[in-house]
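Hey team,

Sharing the Acyl-CoA dehydrogenase run so nobody has to redo it. Sequence (393 residues) first:
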Amino acid sequence: MALDTDGIAIPPLAEEHRMVRDLVARFVERDLMPLEPAVLKRESEGQRYGLTPEEEAPLLAKAKELGLYGLDVPEEFGGADLPISALMAIEEEMGRTVTPFIFPPDSPNLHMLLAVANPEQRMKYLDPYARGEMRSSIAISEPGAGGDPAGMTTRAVKDGDDWIINGRKIWVSGVPRADFIILMARTGEGKRQEGVTAFIVERGTPGFIIEREIPMIGGRRTYELVFEDCRVHERQILGQLGAGYAPMQLRLNVRRLQMGARCTGMARRALDMLCEQARNRSTFGVRLADRQAIQWWVAEAATKIHTTRLMVRDAAAKMTAGEDVRTEASMLKVHATEMAQEVLDNAMQTFGAMGMTKELPLQLMASQVRVQRIYEGPSEVHRMAIARRMLKG
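Structure output:
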């Protein structure tokens, strides 16, 4: 537990990293935010939340032109090799818009592949993935198991040089566009993390079935997957047999820091909108900005945004130093999602009836933050984990 350690300072962003962050901020404001009205309109009409191919293609081209591909990808794969702290500053800027766009590749799965992929897998999967030429997803949760790995029942059984996988996964994001998924399955008899192995399963593998699409609040969609005698070669084992839990935890820690940074960005956007509305709107002859209730919302939001950003930077610094940040990541995940939920709700309240419409991005952000209180582990499970580690001493 890294919480009690001393000597890990929170370094300021280096000048070159601030320049990249500022470049991303301009990209968000000039290229992504102008697309919000179209994105919000389609979502409000029941269409898919997302970008059209005609909208996404120029964004990808411009991002590549600006050098915003592979920001945390090692230089050997053609990336910028930014540290986690710089990446999180960029994620905060990206959180300020509801236009759904990411700079390839998706960082959490990248870090898992970097940690354990063997030379053959690095060439076949990691190299094109790092260049943004492949997409991936990860399948962990199962129906009825929730955030408890002890409930994982998907099993892989050895058959010669192959493994035969049977089971079911749920709440998996990005499946239709994924070239491969990272699948967690039991290969041993352990009750929790023991005996869990990660497999790379390519799209189109016989027995890999997309059972159904599940619409989520916030415009997102997840998928339920079925594996029926799905046969993969032993070369598809990612990492060590029976030791898939630790690299999965690394991936989860990166995602939880990313969520903290994104929530900070969303709260910043909500606070900016709240302040603008308060300055320009009067009720009963008094500006909203002059009402104490609004002033306290502003003060609380600014303070909590600042503390959340420091928590992100602290966890990033410790992760860079090689420390175990499971506790910090859990604290951040709980605090950031609940902070953003509060700031967004107050911003919506400040806008009155307009805040309830689907014309503003606030409602979509609020729904997305609500989902994040469940994703990557529910808040209650994280609180339980934090308390358990603290009580152990």
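The first helix runs from residue 15 to 32.

Ping me if you want the raw files.
A.
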